Structures are given as C-alpha cells and as structure tokens.
Amino acid sequence: xxxxxxxxxxxxxxxxxxxxxxxxxxxxxxxxxxxxxxxxxxxxxxxxxxxxxxxxxxxxxxxxxxxxxxxxxxxxxxxxxxxxxxxxxxxxxxxxxxxxxxxxxxxxxxxxxx
Length: 114
Known about the structure:
The protein is of the alpha+beta class and 114 residues long. The chain has one domain (8-113). Helix content is 30%, strand content 34%. The protein has a 6-stranded antiparallel sheet, covered by helices on one side. Strand 4 (41-50) and strand 5 form a beta hairpin. The protein is globular and about 40 Å long. The two termini are 22 Å apart.
C-alpha cells in the first residue's frame, strides 16, 4: 500500500471504491480489496473462504499495522469464530479492540506471534 509494488495510478484505481450498502458510506469495494471504517481508522483488505479454509489480509491505513491470518476451520464452531474475529480485531487495531469482549485465545495467539 506504500506504492512499491504498484504505481500511484494502479493503487488509486484499487482504492476507488463502490459502496457495499448505499446507505452505509463507511465501507466499499475496490479492485481486489475492501475499505472498512473502524473505530481505529480505515482498514483495507480482503478475505475469502472455501470449504475447510478461510484467510484474511488487512492493513490499517493510519498505523501501518498489517495482519494476514489463515485458518483451517470453515465453517468453524461458534467459539472458534469468536476467537478468530477477536484475533483479527486485536491484530488490526490493538488491545481493547476485540468486538466481543476480548478472547483469551486471541490474546494468546497474538503473544505467540510477537
């Protein structure tokens, strides 16, 4: 996202978004990535899943924080979904950002990753 891989024109094309929901202007799809407005700033990224696997890659525009996570449980049981969501929030925005009240599993995974 710093212009080293793609030139300014192509990067701007990717970041030109179309609203996902016309009533919600805080997020939108560009070419190959999505823009999300979060409490910790603008997040750019993409995720995807096929039976048995899910991956997510996000970059925080304000902090430069980057996270890429892959999991091998899709669909996952509810407890794993909560831990995965908390891990993504924690990685994108830092401690205290877990949307579901925090998760010991997510905190543990982040500690291992450091």
